[in-house]
Write a structure and sequence with these properties.
This protein has about 220 residues and is of the alpha/beta class. It has 6 helices and 7 strands.
């Protein structure tokens, strides 16, 4: 039976992905703090108190998984300073988002390399706000920069893992009504998770490294 590992699974999209996959396979949920909703799911093992800014903590969490990994979903992320005007942007906010949104997923993949099965898949949950070609509104410096960096890393992962036959999905979930977005958006977390799961199911070496909307269309870098 396959094993799915999801970071940031305590709420929002991550929680709904855990709910979907737990109906099919054992799931390991990695998060900084758990939630009653996550703890209530059957066939889900929760590894909590994991600070995604600590590479040792990320490594330890992956090593705590009780079996090989067939699907790794790097979903954990933060959004800060969205309405901050130029002139008031802080380096601390940018650094924090960069560490969690861009660096942590790569550290997570690196930690998982020896635990991935032969037919494993990796999904990076990113944002079209990391697209330079799609940027028409400016601002959001830390978030845009961190997601653009994640997209670049995802493309490199797709190339570097080709020999191992491990495809990489780089997926924008759409504007989702979660705590991160102030509950503004087109999709519910349930709808977004279902679309993401469909894209992951369709993922192959032929589509590895493509930047896609959860609906399926290719997005500009």
């Amino acid at each position: 039976m396959k094993h799915v590992v999801i970071t940031g699974a305590n709420r929002g999209i991550g929680l709904e992905l855990a709910r979907i996959y737990a109906k099919l396979y054992p799931v390991t949920a990695i998060c900084r703090s758990s939630s009653d909703a996550l703890e209530s799911l059957d066939y889900v093992t929760v590894i909590k108190d994991v600070d995604m800014r600590s590479w040792a903590a990320v490594q330890k969490a992956i090593e705590q998984c009780e079996r090989k990994i067939d699907l790794l979903i790097c979903n954990a992320g933060i959004f800060e300073g969205g309405s901050t005007k130029l002139g008031n942007v802080t380096a601390k906010s940018i650094q924090e988002q960069f560490l969690i949104n861009a660096v942590a997923p790569i550290m997570c993949v690196q930690a998982a390399l020896d635990f991935l099965t032969r037919d494993a898949k990796i999904a990076l949950i990113t944002s079209r706000m990391g697209s330079m070609g799609d940027n028409q509104s400016g601002g959001y410096y830390g978030y845009r920069m961190s997601k653009a960096a994640l997209n670049a890393a995802g493309k490199s992962l797709a190339i570097d893992l080709t020999e191992r036959g491990i495809p990489i999905a780089i997926l924008h979930p759409g504007m989702v009504r979660t705590e991160m977005t102030g509950y503004a958006g087109k999709f519910t977390p349930e709808e977004a998770a279902e679309l993401l799961a469909a894209r992951i199911e369709d993922l192959s070496m032929e589509t590895s490294g493509q930047f896609r909307h959860a609906r399926g269309e290719i997005l500009p870098w």
